[in-house]
What we know:
Helix content is 39%, strand content 15%. By secondary structure, it is an alpha/beta fold. It has 2 domains: 40-68 and 334-438, Aspartate Aminotransferase, domain 1, CATH 3.90.1150.10; 73-331, Aspartate Aminotransferase, domain 2. The strands form 3 sheets. A 7-stranded mixed β-sheet has the order 4-10-9-8-7-5-6, sandwiched between helices. Strands 1-2-3-13 form a 4-stranded mixed β-sheet. The longest helix has 22 residues, at 334-355. The chain is globular, with a radius of gyration of 22 Å.
Amino acid sequence: MVNAFNPDAIDALPAETRRAIERRIRLLGPAYRLFYQDPVQVSTGRGTRLFDREGREYLDAYNNVASVGHANPRVVEAVSRQMATLCTHTRYIQDGILDYAEQMLPTFGGRIAAAGHMMFTCTGSEANDLAMRIAKHHTGRHGIICTAEAYHGNSDLTASFSPSLGAQSPLGTWVRRVPAPDSWRNDPATLGQKMAEAVAEQAWLLKRHGDGLAAFIADSLFSSDGIFATPEVLRPVAEAVRAAGGLFVADEVQSGFARSGDHFWGFQRHGIDPDIVTMGKPMGNGYPVAGIAVVPEVVERFGRDTRYFNTFGGNGVAIAAAQAVFDVIRDDGVQDNVRRIGALIRDRLSALAERFEAIGDVRGAGLYIGVEMVTDRASRTPDADAATRIVNGLRARRVLISATGPEANVLKIRPPLVFSEADADWLLAETENVLAEVYGQTA
């Protein structure tokens, strides 16, 4: 796993940390992972900051779940008020869920805005699982195409089309992969067409092997593939998917809710009109709420032939959290902040790249930024060791980021959407200091 703590190194840690990790392993088992060579203990959070039990302050430049900031007062108040009022499922008529859907649907544009529906789950994994159930039912096919290192969830179905979970996590027999649109190693002008051709080929192979394409699914910023933000790439892909009789599913769990800055939804950067949009993570600022938006003709037969019920999906408290997040983004100029601060960070990282040759590429959109570390720019050889050293060097300075990509060499900067200019200054100053340490320069 990218940036995981190595349990074999536990003896090098302070006694208190070692005891906490040993207790965690004993109680939670081997499947859970910790970040960083020196794992972080957290007790409280506020805005873009996390605090450990000793009161030490950390800059959170990684967690997109707390999209409008840790312990956002408006979200906390909304959840508390609703929990004290009523928390029950969607088989009763309740205004909150209807008000939220009515406000959200227009944000998607296209066919969903015109006549679409929303359905609610607890997690992004459930949302992607539901999207595929609907796609298979609608098309009568089972084939799924995803990108080479995609991550789409933890359920049995979604794990089967999440290749980033690793070689020991089996892919489904009806799953096919296509390369992500690597804008640094390929001509950006040809990325969309090449990806569309790869999708068409895989759809043909699915058909030849006895079934066909139910759906193509992509994270609009290709987060686990290494963060690629070239606009319009998915437009020809959507055409190829529909030509093969499949549905286009836009996974907005990571790239939605104004994360890209220039649009509210990541797929809108590509000029496409998806059949299904899936949401999760940042939707409730930490409260588990997720869902899908879907065009009516796609879900019509599914709704007639089967039923959908989720005990907790769309409950009153979940919707109160989601509504509060949407209100903050809308009322507080969050999308403009994302666009402005994201551009500032990318510009200053690009300036650092002029000094540090190991920075091969700086890319991204809004507050989703990738910094590709390489052994040298001429060969463009990924340098995962350098990325690991930088991530852990920043952690030592109490700045939290991570790494991503098939070679684990892309620094992943994905802070809460309320990241400020002062936060950016802290992040960039410490990044410069760590780069100087790693590459033997004076800061």
